[in-house]
Amino acid sequence: MRGAMLPAAALLAAAFSFPAPAQDATRGAAVAEARQCQACHGPQGRSEIPEMPSLAGQQEDFVTMQLILFREGLRRVPAMTEAARGLTDTEAQDLAAYFSSLPSGPKPDRGSPDPALMARGGEVAASRNCNACHLPNFAGRANVPRVNHQREDYLLHTLTEYRDGVRVGADTQMNGLLYGLTDYDLRAVAHFLAHQE
Amino acid sequence: MIRRHLLGLAAAVALPGIALAQQQQPAPPAWAQGRPAEMASSPLAPHAPRLTVTPPDRIPVNSLRVPEGFQVELWAHGLPGARAMTRGPNGTVFVGTRGIGRVYAVRDNGQAREVSTLMSGLDQPSGVAVRDGALFIAAMHRVLRIDNVENNLQNPQPTDLTSAFGQAAEPHHGWKHIAFGPDGRLYIPRGVPCNICEVPEDRFALIESWNPDGSDRRIEARGVRNSVGFDFHPRTGQLWFSNHGRDWAGNNNPSDTLHVSLRRGENHGFPWCAGGFQDPAVEGRLCSEFPPPALILGPHVAPIGTHFYTGTAFPEQYRNALFVALRGSWNRAPLSGFEVIVVREGENGRLVRESFLTGFRDDANQRFSGRPAGLLTMPDGSLLVSDEDNGAIYRVSYRR
Questions:
Q1: If we measure between CA atoms, which residue out of B245, B144, B146 comes closest to residue B192?
Q2: I need a surface site. Which of B70, B86, B151, B311 has the fewest CB within 10 A?
């Protein structure tokens, strides 16, 4: 029934072991330099600007996908629409490799955790199963972003956008997940996540 | 129906505490609704869509397998997210996508295929169909028509038919497969806005049809959780559709299914029954009340392209056979699907299923190298298969 079974098996093995990654962090560093990513996202990918996300240690697939969504006009942020204009797929993948290769770390002046916000944030995170996709340490995986070590003000900003339907991802999971949460709950979750290691 | 209401009322009266607790429980994301407590720590999650171009040397065409006498080649590449396909009268193949928001046009110049992006920035425009030289595009809740499309590939001017078709705005399972029936009507499914839930039976879980201008809405099938592939039998004209069963009810339940619509408007089981699986999450109606599926496809295999082969180049037993592209599972360990199957009438009219295009799934390592999605018979009798994960289209042809 199935012809050429033996050679196909050999080819199958070859097809699943890709030779070298297409993306390149060194090339990505040059693209980041040329497009002045650091001006907003920080010299080592750690943002020093309110409501501007840190990208150091961010998940590679997530960064690639967001850059494509910016380029295609599907995620609308004026500064990024301009920054992502004309970006090739390879440049997006290289940028993602570069930012994911930088060590993540907490905002140096993030302050000490507020017990009430930590408690409520932990409750909300548990009840909405944040750990299922973002993993128990909230470092994310593949197309699911790292949310630990992120700036608290950015987390609050983007959580609010998701809740209010202003931002959509490649799918609508985050919109459905945050539906109905109060402003205080979002503040608490942002505070809780920003204090995860 | 009365019994269901009574049961619901009894539960609400007897257990106010539980009802209240459920009200205060936040809604889990749509994909996790109905998940039993023991699966709460499961690491399964939908696979990340790939929105970038896969270079041709990384497209796994050489590892694909077809039955003896057939061959498979790479026909087009550079179409991230390639999904449903349809063909214009002058030979342009139009390709819908989801996450990347594009509709592609592919022209064959005899030597090679030229891929261009016809539309972009749309919200999951996965539905494409051609009628009288016009391309119809169904995005999440929008319907667009581009007249005389093949003469306007560089500068398409869509007419927005969204208000005429009145699609529900709920995004979940709101992406479409669309097709024109032999009756000249446009068929559009409306999936359910959840994983498992009771829905208004004339609003969700439907396959509906309209006149091409969006008038005269008609419900063709009810109780269909999420159909993203259907076709019309070349001889009988009957509507055959595949359907996705719910997630988080276990590795082996329920099965995805193939149905034939014998009576217009009939309910095919959602939310109570899927492929003979009586769903414990929803009470009220029994599997025996619904027409059984034509064929059980297997748990979580995710049927997309569901397509009658109308060519004559394949051997006799493939004429009018139904090909089904199984895009492959995420809510299951181990993986299932990731292949194209062919369904034929065997002895006594029983349906027989065989694998047709395989090699995407690596069972030893629990990985996959591609996800077959759309299917299209070409005038020369070859079969095109789109690979959503690699943004590629393969061509399967027969050589005796």
A1: B245
A2: B151
Residue position matching structure tokens 């979002």? A186
CA B191 to chain centre: 10
Q: A74 and B27: CB-CB below 8 Å?
A: no
Q: Could you give the domains of chain A?
A: 25-101 (1.10.760.10), 115-194 (1.10.760.10)
In this predicted model, what pLDDT tens digit does every residue of A54-111 receive, in sequence order? 999 999 999 999 999 999 999 989 999 999 999 999 999 999 999 999 999 988 888 8
DSSP characters for A30-93? HHHHHTTTHHHH-TTS---STT----TT--HHHHHHHHHHHHTTSS--HHHHHHTTT--HHHHH
Task: Tell me the average pLDDT of chain A.
Answer: 88
- Superfamily in which the B61-398 domain is placed by CATH: TolB, C-terminal domain (2.120.10.30)
Contact B28 A3 (CB under 8 A): no
Residue among B31, B121, B358 minimizing CB distance to A74: B121
B171 closest CB neighbour out of A65, A128, A172: A172
Q: Which of A17-31, A183-197, B205-219, B368-382 has the lowest mean pLDDT?
A: A17-31
B179 to chain A, closest Cα gap in Å: 24
